[in-house]
Specification:
Rossmann fold, Flavoprotein, phosphopantothenoylcysteine decarboxylase activity, 8-stranded mixed beta sheet, about 400 residues, 5-stranded parallel beta sheet, alpha/beta
Amino acid sequence: MRTSEDAPARPSVVLGVSAGIAAYKACELLRLFTESGHDVRVVPTREALRFVGEPTWAALSGNPVTADVWDSVHEVPHVRIGQGADLVVVAPATADVLAKAAHGIAGDLLTNTLLTARCPVVFAPAMHTEMWEHPATQANVAVLRERGALVLDPAVGRLTGADTGRGRLPDPAEIFEVCRRVLSGRSLDLTGRHVVVSAGGTREAIDPVRFIGNRSSGLQGYALARTAAARGARVTLVAANVALPDPAGVAVVRVESALQLRDAVLEAVADADAVVMAAAVADFRPAARSDSKIKKTSAEPGAVHLVKNPDILAELGERRREGAAPYPAVIAGFAAETDDVLANGRAKLARKGCDLLVVNQVGENLAFGTPDNAAVVLSADAEPVEIPRGPKEALADVVWDLVAERLP
């Protein structure tokens, strides 16, 4: 019979909560940790307890809660909590806590814990836009990142009152996904890099109601963005018609058509180190768009004349060959094929001039809209890399491994 002594130790997580209105969202993050088997110790600041009280944190975590270094002094909590943690995540992280962490100020239990922790540390900032954009905050964030902390960029959305802008706490489920990946032991090998990812499927309007499109859900592109952010990158995600929550720490640019996607990608790659084009871009668009809905009549409908859309991946490769900015150092693309997968993939690799081409078979219950994927990664200077069927995050990690090898 298995005893509690034989059971593997649960990962130990410290959830720091600082004094922002988004503190109530940390309750959901705490629930995600505890329900997935983590042992969570909540360490709020004194001011955070004005937003969510100690009984709530204690009840949800099953552990004692204090903000004061003078409680249970015999246990030396200001040292022991950080020493025993596998992960420290601060959500929300206010400008005040970021500043104290960057400058080593330890005036309460949370900031003492941050100084003693030797495990990965994740900050999920939340504050008003002006506070986030202030040079002092940006300098503090840069210092923390240089020291190895993972500081997520806040989301864009509704703030307190009528204000809207960048500064919103990312979705707790997305913060949890980042933390889960950090706990898996992945290094922050993309820290200091800016990467661009395209995702989803473009729509080419026939009239105000109808469009030419495809079945891409954006799941693979979002997995690429999420994993890059968890590895420390600054990520710009160009999303075409995707109904998914924004990955934590990712800047999302929403587009609809292939032409809009092209413009957004070319703007984003101006200072990017790498681009991964995972979006399913329509090859053609109607030559003309009707301004009003085309009515169904007794007569046969007129033909819809099509013209080619720009090949964005090939254009990036051409720009690099000609030295015509903008273009990134590493260019990767996706090729969805239904037959002759490898032969078609090799032809596309040569034609498009990219460094890596992720070739995957699509069809009924394959790739589009599914949680898993399988692929072969082709390159001009190395042997093909086969990625067996598995979660899309696993495929994304392999892609970033191959990209990171090629970064200067």
